[in-house]
Amino acid sequence: MKKTNYDIIIVGASNAGGMAAxxxxxxxxxxxxxxxxxxxxxxxxxxxxSIHSKAQQKKNVDIDRNxxxxxxxxxxxxxxxxxxxxxxVDHSSxxxxxxxxxxxxxxxxxxxxxxxxxxxxxxxxxxxxxxxVTAADGAYWEMGYGNWVIEKDEQLGVEFRxxxxxxxxxxxxxxxxxxxxxxxxxxxxxxxxxxxxxILCTGGYGTNQALMQKWNPVGLxxxxxxxxxxxDGSGLVAALEVGAAKDEExxxxxxxxxxxxxxxxxxxxxxxxxxPPDDPGYLWLGSYPMLKVxxxxxxxxxxxxxxxxxxxxxxxxxxxxSAMIWTEATMTDKFLKQYHTLGCxxxxxxxxxxxxxxxxxxxxxxxxxxxxxxxxxxxxxxKLNLPVKNLENSVQQYNANVKAGKDTDFGKxxxxxxxxxxxxxxGAIVGGRLLATLDGLRVTTKMEVVNTADDVIxxxxxxxxxxxxxxxxxxxxxxxxxTASHALTFGRLAGQYAAE
Length: 500
What we know:
The chain has helices spanning about 15-25, 55-60, 65-75, 80-105, 145-155, 210-215, 215-220, 235-240, 305-315, 335-340, 355-370, 375-385, 390-405, 480-500, and strands at about 5-10, 30-35, 45-50, 110-115, 130-135, 160, 165-170, 175-185, 190-200, 225, 250-260, 270, 290-295, 320-325, 370-375, 425-435, 450, 455-460. It is an alpha/beta fold. Helix 12 (about 375-385) crosses helix 13 (about 390-405). The longest helix is centred in the first third of the chain and has 23 residues, at about 80-105. This is FAD binding domain protein.
């Protein structure tokens, strides 16, 4: 018979959950982690933000805490709890250093700092926050280290119960004292008690279309794929059932890398990606600031911006989608290097792709009909179902800006202007890939969930993407590794405070 009494129940075994489990166990708690799937190790992210980590100190990376927090708050137009931002800043290096010391180095891997964060305009203000989980040979990320985190948790005495889903929280005398869980193999329900509390690390709600329609309806239109396969919102719903407060406006992290068939109706197209890493319609070049036009064939924004700005801008255009236009020449390493992109969009490690891999991906999308190729702009317009004259005029005007070395229309940096004047031409219809929703439960700086009166719900904690107050609207991707660090850092704190 399975045990039904613990000090702490953690719901979700990914980034926040794994760190919460380790921290709680290190502080003497008897911990159970439940997860509705069979595994979670592959979900752990490899670029983790911080300031003043050991890896950053080694490379003399020094980021001013006030400057960073003020940037994040300004990016969100003040729609955040700055106390949480400072809590993250002041504890972020602890999570990174713990992973490095306790998990990575014992397996031969290590943490290294990415010390550059190139930008030329305030629109692209960037910070060198990234710490890269690096494999022993130094060639790429250590993609499997999440399994090592789980192994470390088990060494600390943490018990894991897989294919076990949270159904409801148990409340007694106003305190959360346990959870009703369901074995997804047998559908048998069990009540498990938690003497010190329950920590929700359940992620967002991106795969739940009803919740997307309720909480983020524009995101449902501008995103073509949801890449957060587990994010059904179950932890949020369970907390709301017991009176928890939630962020009132949406927040999300979105990549502009979703190629869709010509003629796609964005209002009806929303696919849940269940096959990582072979993600359907993935177009890595979408995050490069090449020429983009609306479905009328007209340029409509400065392509040099955080990823998500493209979908925001497209939401004010017909059809909620964009068309990206480029050439064979602008796919060469020479041109790809000049953009100085950050995070996973950068060329070569710590980016996802090399130039050869990016070009190979374009050929794959070409075979699938998601990328179009033509010898003239007129032919490309026809293949993309764009007004021919409008696209020809847009390309002509863009090339005039390139030749002049100044974007007089939208102000893109000269270094990010590339000619579109040499066949063969390429094009794709592009929308958003929702990585995760980030609007979550309101929490204190001790990760305690509060109710609608802003009173703490005793015994209930939240960390990671199901916790709120930290993001609003679009994700600031020029602070590389922020979502991962938010989850890991606040998971670590939640475990510590719940175990007290």
